[in-house]
Amino acid sequence: QVQLVESGGGLVQPGGSLRLSCAASGRIFRIYLMGWYRQAPGKQRELVASITASGTTTYSDSAKGRFTISSDNAKNTWYLQMDSLKPEDTANYSCNAGLKQDREEESAYHWGKGTLVTVSL
């Protein structure tokens, strides 16, 4: 079993910052890809940012220049630093990991349940 648990969400004013964390635990051989997705009410889930185990990052256009993804591979934990937040960033943010639970197994994706970020006055 693998568990991904997010933390750090909350209410923040426009222009403010939040730092989300995702901690993976359980039977994990290796994590290859870590990501953050978000889903706003009435909208499709979208990729916000991802980072490979070697440190290559990808950002959505809306996240570029404002959000930073990072990871602590030794702790199986990754982060999303969100600055200059806007009301349109309001969403449920979920973390995602592509990993193997055993050397011989195929890699698979696992999801956290999400943490709510609300950007409002």
How does this structure look, described?
With 121 residues, the protein is mainly beta. The protein has no helices and 11 strands. Strands 2, 4, 5, 6, 9, 10 and 11 form a 7-stranded mixed beta sheet that branches. Strands 1-3-8-7 form a 4-stranded antiparallel beta sheet, with no helix packed on it. A hairpin with a 7-residue loop joins strand 9 (91-100) and strand 10.
- The mean pLDDT is 97
Assembly type: single chain
How many beta-strand runs?
Answer: 11
Helix content class:
under 10%
**Structural class, please?**
mainly beta
Major β-sheet, in short?
A: 7 strands, mixed
Element string (H = helix, E = strand): EEEEEEEEEEE
Weakly predicted, low-confidence segments: none
Distance between the termini: 40 Å
- Bin the strand percentage: over 45%
| Structural shape | elongated
List the total number of helices.
0
Keywords:
0% helix, 121 residues, mainly beta, 57% strand, elongated, 11 strands
Short description:
With 121 residues, this protein is mainly beta. 0% of the residues lie in helices and 57% in strands.
Topology of helices and strands:
Elements (H helix, E strand, L loop, with lengths): L1 E6 L2 E3 L5 E9 L3 E10 L6 E7 L4 E3 L7 E6 L4 E6 L8 E10 L7 E4 L3 E5 L2
Parallel strand pairs: 2-11
Antiparallel strand pairs: 1-3, 3-8, 4-5, 4-9, 5-6, 7-8, 9-10, 9-11
